[in-house]
């Protein structure tokens, strides 16, 4: 019965043997109970360990960070499964590869730095560019430290690696944004005349990393905010992003500096001191327009080219001329996208006056009755007047407008009656021609 596990048996008829026997049986019973208790505790611990192991495996499998454990000889003891998402290798393949030579050569550099540290618990943090198995270049942050067991003894090295590509992109965007702002502030001060001494301009530009050439062309790129340049959602934010992209692309062109200005982009381009600079400027301006069309199809952009001066002291005036070229060109030569200030003729002189309130008063006083007559009767006498004032004969005006010259003669008399002037007077013709020029510029101003 004892052999079958029944430890409740006792004997009491054999003297001292009975006492010893009974004590042995009690101890056997106690041993059995202890064993059962131990086995129960062991099973409980095994279940906890299994549960803990499953949790660690779940964490290791799903975590983004890569964990590498190495012994003192740089042999990989453990590599987390996250390596496949991070670098494209499986953990098994990674362990078989030469760690420092083929996959993560920067770890050798980290070990060298750790060896050079004195005292304490050395650790090294590094940010490096790394090529994945598929060839993609990413940024990694790696923290290497010594690995210790439960008793605090060194057992090798522990390296935790994570992908920080997105963070680096954000940092790069912030740095570029900061540099753009400094550049915009510099050119704003320059165009406002806040930096007057030429040597100060070059010194200020040098401190900002802006290489200002001695001879340069100046452009104003007018941006029409429509089409693909703006999105309906977060329009202002999207516009700024698109503007930044366009400025960066322009700046990446050879010998070109671009910055943001109201209603568009300012562009400065190095040029040779040559008598053919105008032809080259127009060709370069056309290439800028092509770049805009390629980056943002459907975006309406026009570019004005300033006249040339060989000194920075005239840069503010030159830029105004570039802006004026766009104002004039969009109205006078609307079939083109590139306008040079040198081609604006008499409009160059009229531009300053056109910005004043007196210009509209002058146009209304000089051409008002004729403008009202055309609007009321759906006629085109102002156009006829412009052709007559251009110096063409009445017959030539008739050929251009497909009317008989007598019809043009009648129109001339009607114009004279409406305006109460004589078109045979040189002074009157000059006044009317000036008013027509101003009318076009004022309309451009209203359109912008």
UniProtKB/TrEMBL annotation:
Listed SMART domains: PAC, PAS
Q: Which residues form the PAC domain?
A: 124-176
By what name is this protein known?
A: PAS domain S-box protein
PANTHER family this protein is in? CARBOHYDRATE DIACID REGULATOR, DNA-BINDING TRANSCRIPTIONAL ACTIVATOR ADER
| Keyword set, alphabetical order | Coiled coil
Record-linked InterPro entries: CdaR-like_regulators, PAC, PAS, PAS-assoc_C, PAS-like_dom_sf, PucR_C-HTH_dom, PucR_C-HTH_sf
State the source organism's domain of life: Bacteria
Chain ranges of the PAS domain: 52-95
CDD domains assigned to the protein according to its UniProt record, in alphabetical order: HAMP, PAS
Using the record for this protein, list the coiled-coil segments as residue ranges, or answer none: 25-62
